[in-house]
Fold:
Amino acid sequence: MPLPEPNDAGSGSVTFVNRFTLSGSAEDFEAAFAETAEFLCRRPGFRWHALLVPADTGPGSADGRPQYVNIAVWDDEASFRAAVAHPEFPAHAAALRALSTSEPTLYRHRQIRVAPDVPAVSGPGGRTT
Structure:
């Protein structure tokens, strides 16, 4: 699927961004997140996700607790909403809430730019031509 034209607000795809601040161990959080990601990647409309950590080695939050950011792209808002309404999702959400607090937001694309010399690829940050 090609990228939408720049400024194409009607492209349909949405990006879910969720910042997590840990209260549990990073190892436990990453294990719980991996299970949640495996569940979500099997839902219709899921495209890809990336779990990020700060590039520097300093504290993630003002109080020093580690932080993560999840970015997930979905075909459309309805697919995302259906995935989180699935009867199995609350158990995954509860496992993450036991280890962190989160700040979730669903975004629509407003502008997309790709460098002209970037080869056609698929996956996170890539494009398919």
